[in-house]
Design goal:
heterodimer, A: alpha/beta, 21 helices, B: alpha/beta, five-stranded parallel beta sheet, four-stranded parallel beta sheet, 23 helices, 13 strands, binds iron/sulfur cluster
Chain lengths: ~475, ~475
């Protein structure tokens, strides 16, 4: 893990860098926690010091605008040295007492990995001593100093497979969907609808559309508000097929195939006409049904949208900072639309990076992206890119996680014909709004410079600029 | 005992802390942080606290030495505002990898400092220790010392790895770093008899700017704010102030007390929240400055300003009285803000149905008791489920709290207002209190509440 990262990140780039500036990356345990949050009645637990949990909590709360159940084994200096078994035990008992979860997912952190705690061993002892802890407890090793958010998600789902998937006689029409962490609850809802419209019944794992889709429950719950039930997880061995979205989900799908014999199909993206075509054709073949009229119509709408919009996409230079699978989905789509992928920065190793023929995709940070994005027509990354977009004076589209300064992050949809159609309009409108119009006298100026100085699309919200106590409401 | 353990012990021994005076030696050694409950803990780590306390120094680079977790998951998430430099909003971290964990991260840290100086040329670099790098034994103090010599720039170690304790401890350890390496290392260009320090104010949402014009009108200069909207050289020359005000409860009491001890700068503890608290703060500042030789007419000028501003504030607040009278608020927050805000809310007729005193000191509680007159209103610890219950049963009309419990209120379909760190509105000074009440009014009277509480048509039919 470490060596390849070093090659891309700190040696093969523009310069050898020891310091990450304006991180794009977030850590593995967070990705694991989010995966666990897609299980119904779940409580994710970080084995580490309390601060890691607090940061994760704040990050998710600001992105999803929801309460987030997330606990910590609250390790301190002394317990770290002595080993964390006792803290894990106390944490599990406390969580059981207070929240009665149906599922607990434990993710290790850099601290406890550095010490080398044997969590799996501890867990066996704890479960033996406390029969009341009868809910599934899944552990995943996610040191902060390896990989990134996306890896943590993928490892957590793989760990769930390893722990809970069992072979079962096939149920006709049942399919398992393994979404990558780049899919929003809205994406999942859309995909589920599509699959269901083919007469198939999907089990989605993890299912953030049940837990983090922003709904108002009838009563208060200290655990996740919905998601894949433990019972459903027990049934995924009975599916006819596994549909995995994103290269990150390939290992989990493979484990599932090995354990249950269910064949897997990995889609590296569901965004773009060709990518979506592949999905609908596959579902049609799997279900033995023709593609429903609704989706034929949507395809036609997407084609029309592409025809209407291509004038504004052709030759546009786009810079993207995102985790590998999201980078691939967006980057490949941008190129499909005639844009040039002028800069691409990502967080962790992935097979998709080689496929993405951008000039020097690199593992790096937002400083790298900013350095390469000058003069681009669009910057796409998570909310932390707002400062760079502002400095560069280029339009900014927030994608990925966290998005803490815009509403509705959970409901944005970019999958399938309809999702792609809406994305074409959204990005096309940004290009339209920021296109350069010739003014008398332009010939005398540096036009490009002039063009760049327009306000960044996403940053036009500073009402009352000029008064310090008003203009400070930074986007 | 290593130096960090030493510092932590010192901080726990803080003599100016009211809580400490009541403890015996053994209790004091155990420290103020109550033992954390695994599986039932909430709150940030010491690193978090240190970063909150120092990040508002706007022109320096804040470099976090550790794996991506500590900075990558948290940067650019706080509302401290700057009137100038923006370097403090740039996230710097060594983002250590597995090799560093095995062989030590010091080399990478050293190179990181060098890169930052070359690329961004800040007046200083603050280096934050975190759990993993502390555990593997990276000696940031020695390294920063060597780097300072080598590069000829102050490189300041902030030794508050997360696992030593709470956010509050981190605030204090950050203060220790300033005392040890920053304060007193530079001289101000000039001094006046009206120079003060403000300690423990972070300029969240720009609150300092609600207060500064008042001070400026009185001719009082903020020599250094520690650390809201601060520049490095201001903090470095803070030792020449004539007096100091410590805000935000006890977060940085060690800085205030040690500056009194070392440089003879008297301080008082005050608050900018609430009309009368603001006035009290101005009076206290004047009193301390006059005692140290400022012209005595300052006190008269303060009274003139206070009379004018209070009259203006109350006039504006009373406009809300008919709208807000009798509304019931649940106040979930810590320390200072509680009692300052309670007084102001009561003044316009809002009833406080409960306030949390989890983070409040004994004096705070005394004060709340005086203001509210009924101890039953004080809530030691309230689980989210209990909060939800109170709100759902309509025992409160609005909840004021930090972002963490926001959705407990909203899911109960009850108005909520952010009064903690991440808030977007500034509530300090006279204008701030009017702004706070204005926000409460907007939240309470928004027409959505009637709509969202209506049952769906299919449920309504069942009911009728
Ligand atoms: S607890 Fe330690 S590892 Fe976690 S965020 Fe705080 S300093 Fe970093």
């Amino acid at each position: 893990m470490t060596a390849p990262a070093a090659i891309h990140d700190r040696a093969a780039g523009l310069a050898t860098k020891a310091c990450t500036v304006n991180p794009l990356k977030m850590s593995q345990p967070l990705g694991a926690a989010l995966a666990f949050l897609g299980i119904a009645g779940s409580m994710p637990l970080f084995h580490g010091s309390q601060g890691c949990t607090a940061f994760g909590l704040v990050l998710f709360v600001r992105h999803f605008r929801e309460s987030i159940p997330l606990q910590t084994t609250a390790m301190n200096e002394v317990t770290t040295i002595l080993g964390g078994g006792e803290n894990i035990e106390k944490a599990l008992l406390n969580i059981h007492k207070r929240a009665k979860p149906a599922f607990i997912g434990i993710a290790s952190t850099g601290l406890t990995e550095t010490k080398g705690d044997d969590v799996a061993g501890d867990l066996r002892l704890i479960k033996g001593a406390h029969p009341e802890l009868d809910m599934p407890i899944v552990y995943v090793s996610t040191p902060d100093y390896q990989g990134a958010f996306q890896d943590g998600w993928a490892k957590a789902v793989t760990a769930i497979m390893e722990a809970l998937a069992v072979p079962a006689p096939t149920v006709k029409g049942q399919v398992t969907i393994l979404p990558g962490c780049h899919m929003t609850p809205g994406d999942i809802v859309e995909l589920r609808d599509i699959v269901t419209d083919f007469g198939l019944s999907p089990i989605v794992l993890p299912d953030l559309s049940g837990s983090l889709d922003g709904h108002v429950p009838e009563d208060f719950s200290p655990t996740s508000l919905g998601g894949t039930t433990v019972t459903e997880i027990g049934q995924i061995g009975a599916s006819e097929a596994t549909i995995a979205i994103g290269e990150q989900m390939r290992p989990a799908a493979q484990v599932l195939t090995e354990k249950t014999g269910v064949p897997a199909k990995v889609f590296d993206s569901l965004t773009g006409l060709a990518a979506a075509d592949e999905l609908y054709a596959y579902l049609s073949a799997l279900s033995g049904r023709p593609v429903p009229d609704k989706y034929r119509r949507q395809r036609s709408q997407l084609v029309d949208a592409m025809l209407d919009a291509h004038f504004f996409f052709g030759g546009k230079r786009v810079a993207i900072g995102a985790e590998p699978d999201l980078l691939w989905a967006l980057g490949a789509w941008c190129k499909d639309m005639g844009c040039e992928l002028a800069a691409a920065v990502t967080t962790t190793e992935s097979p998709v990076l080689a496929r993405l023929a951008a000039e020097g995709v690199r593992l790096g940070d937002l400083e790298d992206l900013e350095a390469q994005a000058g003069g681009c027509d669009l910057l796409i990354t998570h909310s932390h890119g707002r400062q760079a977009a502002h400095r560069l004076g280029i339009p900014f589209l927030r994608m990925g996680l966290p998005i803490f300064d815009r509403l509705g992050a959970a409901h944005r949809v970019i999958v399938g014909y309809k999702g792609t159609r809406d994305l074409v309009f959204e990005v096309g409108n940004i290009f339209l709004a920021n296109g350069h119009e010739w003014q008398p006298g332009d010939g005398a100026f540096d036009v490009l410079q002039d063009h760049r100085q327009g306000p960044a699309a996403g940053d036009a919200t500073c009402a009352g600029v000029g008064l310090p106590h008003h203009s400070t409401r930074e986007t | 005992m290593d130096s960090l353990a030493n510092t932590v012990q010192q901080v726990f021994n803080e003599p100016a802390c009211g809580k400490n005076q009541g403890k015996d030696d053994k209790a004091r050694k155990k420290g103020c942080t109550r033992a954390l409950q695994p599986g039932a803990a909430a709150g940030g780590c010491a690193f978090d606290g240190a970063k909150i306390a120092l990040a508002p120094i706007t022109d320096v680079a804040h470099l976090v030495h550790g794996p991506i977790a500590c900075e990558g998951n948290s940067w650019d998430n706080r509302g401290a505002k700057s009137s100038g430099p923006l370097l403090y909003r740039t996230g710097f971290t060594t983002d250590i990898n597995e090799t560093d964990v095995v062989f030590g991260g010091e080399k990478r840290l050293f190179r990181a400092i060098k890169e930052i100086l070359a690329k961004y040329d800040p007046p200083a670099v603050f280096v934050y220790q975190t759990c993993v790098t502390a555990l593997i034994g990276d000696d940031i103090e020695a390294l920063c010392k060597a780097a300072s010599v080598k590069f000829g720039k102050p490189i300041i170690p902030v030794n508050a790895p997360g696992f030593v304790g709470s956010k509050n401890l981190g605030n204090k350890l950050a203060g220790e770093a300033l005392l040890e390496y920053v304060i007193g290392t530079k001289e101000p260009e000039y001094t006046t008899p009206y120079d003060i320090n403000i300690i423990g104010e972070y300029n969240l949402a720009g609150e300092l700017w609600q207060v500064k014009p008042l001070l400026a009108e009185l001719g009082i200069r903020v020599l250094a704010c520690i650390s809201g909207d601060a520049r490095y050289h201001e903090v470095a020359s803070a030792h020449r102030a004539r007096a100091a005000m410590m805000v935000c409860s006890k977060a940085m009491i060690n800085v205030a007390r040690k500056m009194e001890e070392r440089y003879g700068i008297p301080f008082f503890e005050g608050s900018f929240y609430g009309v009368s608290d603001m006035s009290e703060a101005l009076r206290e500042i004047a009193r301390l400055l006059i005692a140290r030789g400022a012209p005595a007419d300052l006190s008269g000028r303060v009274e003139t300003l206070v009379a004018r501003e209070e009259a203006r504030a109350w006039a504006r607040l009373s406009a809300y009285r008919p709208r807000l009278q009798g509304k019931r608020a649940l106040l979930i927050t810590g320390g200072v803000k509680s009692w300052s805000v309670v007084a102001a809310l009561q003044e316009i007729g809002i009833e406080i149905v409960g306030t949390s005193v989890k983070k409040s000191t004994k004096e705070d509680k005394e004060r709340i008791k005086k203001i509210m007159g009924d101890e039953a209103h004080m809530i030691e610890d309230m689980t989210p489920r209990e909060m939800y219950g109170v709100l759902k049963d309509a025992r409160a009309d609005i909840m004021l709290s930090g972002g963490r419990s926001q959705f407990v209120a909203l899911k109960a379909k009850v108005p909520w207002l952010d009064i903690n760190q991440e808030r977007h509105h500034a509530y300090a000074g006279y204008d701030g209190m009017v702004a706070l009440v204005g926000e409460i009014d907007k939240a309470l009277t928004n027409p959505i509440w009637g709509q969202v509480r209506r049952p769906a048509p299919w449920d309504a039919k069942v009911a009728s």
